[in-house]
């Protein structure tokens, strides 16, 4: 397999990865909207002693979704960094094709 074919396969895999992440984030956004609607419809101030308790309960519901979104954002940043190295390595100081050094891929 040539280097170009390898790069092409890597780009296809990255594209599928990005697509799957987009699907997950879309599902999480829908889940957040549904949770928000449920909270607004069912958790009124009459159910809580004070406003602070009401806010705490709302945050508990959304905490898990926020963690998932933060984790996926970190994954996206790492993927973008690797794609940047792959696509623009020589411009960004990665590889030097003249002398064949590998550059600093992990900076």
Features:
mainly alpha, disordered C terminus, 107 residues
Write structural notes for this entry.
The chain is mainly α and about 110 residues long. It has one domain. It contains two helices and no strands. It has helices at about 5-40, 50-90. It is elongated. Mean pLDDT is about 80; it is low at about 90-105. This is Restriction endonuclease subunit S. It holds the Pfam family A_ENA.
Summarize the structure.
The protein has helices spanning 3-42, 51-88.
Topology:
Elements (H helix, E strand, L loop, with lengths): L2 H40 L8 H38 L19
Helix pairs in contact: 1-2
Cα separation of the termini: 28 Å
Question: How would you characterize the largest beta sheet?
Answer: none
Give me the count of strands.
Answer: 0
Query: What is the mean predicted local confidence, pLDDT?
Result: 78
Total number of helices: 2
The total tally of domains equals 1
Structural category is mainly alpha
InterPro entries: A_ENA
Organism: Paenibacillus elgii
Protein name: Restriction endonuclease subunit S
Pfam families: A_ENA (PF26595)
């Amino acid at each position: 397999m040539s280097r170009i074919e390898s790069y092409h396969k890597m780009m296809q895999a990255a594209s599928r990865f990005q697509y799957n992440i987009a699907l997950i984030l879309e599902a999480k956004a829908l889940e957040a909207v549904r949770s928000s609607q449920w909270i607004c419809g069912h958790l009124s101030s009459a159910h809580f002693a004070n406003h602070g308790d009401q806010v705490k309960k709302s945050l508990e519901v959304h905490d898990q979704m926020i963690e998932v979104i933060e984790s996926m954002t970190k994954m996206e940043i790492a993927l973008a960094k690797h794609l940047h190295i792959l696509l623009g390595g020589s411009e960004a100081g990665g590889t030097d094709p003249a002398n064949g050094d590998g550059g600093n891929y992990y900076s």
